[in-house]
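QA checklist item 7 of 12: single-chain prediction sanity check.
[x] sequence parsed
[x] length recorded as 302
[x] structure emitted
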Amino acid sequence: MTEQSTTTDPAQAPAGAPREPVAAAEPASAEPTSAEPAAPAEPATSAEPAAPKDRRALRAVLRWTAAVLVFGAAGAGAAYGIGQAERSNLPGLSTRSDGRWTYPVLAKPALPPGAPLPFAVDNPEGIHYADLIQLALPAPLGSTPDTGLKPEKDSEVSVDTFLQEYEGPAREKMRASFADNGLRQIVARGWTTPDGTRTRVYLLRFHASGFADTFQGCGYELAGVKGVEPDPAWDKAREGQPAPKPDGITVLRESVPFGDEQTRAGCVQSGDIQALILQSRKGGAEAVPLHQAVILQRQLLS
């Protein structure tokens, strides 16, 4: 006969048999002994699966986050592409050239040690002490040197070479004026652009600004030019500017009708230097390149 456990359930004892005390097992944790109800159980930890509503919200957030990242990457790529593309290659953003030329970066030349800047407090007469040819407007990119212009050493030209730009009767008058008004030096630079425009830039240095003021060669009986008149395009452009017209600038054009070639002339007087810029082109010379050249030459002499 097998030995019976001392923990026999009283419900399984035979009827009428005396009930033996039951040895209850010790609980894992102390149970409350009072009559009050037990505290509610703690909510489920993260190990339990999220409720269906929470899962739907999480999936929606993930979908929107992915969409934002995709569109953000696409927008950044488009912006980079626009930034790298040439403006003329973008539909709707192409710009039409206004006729200006591309010049190298302009830089004023170094002065001799101790020499003042033109128009400084200690140089009210505007004397330029820099090398004269370095003050001349450089040739634009894509142009070729003018073979018809043959300067001598250091780009200097003689008075006779310069006077070739004028008609015969005017040459002797100008020669005498140069002798009387202290002309010291003439330098020249010339080029031809792909559109056929021929440009000549002359800088004339005088002994003082008062002598430079006497120069009357801007459009005065130019060779092959029947007559000149003030450039209306220049005057109209200057009227739209808030600043007053700059002193010492004259812009002229050959009057209509002209022959096979039209000439435009611009003069800039700055202190002891007088600049003459001539542009000629078959069929008509454009106004914008001369205006641009005059403004840039003025900046170099300021």
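[x] summary fact logged: Strands lie at 144-145, 183-192, 198-206, 228-230, 249-254, 261-270, 273-282.
[ ] second reviewer sign-off
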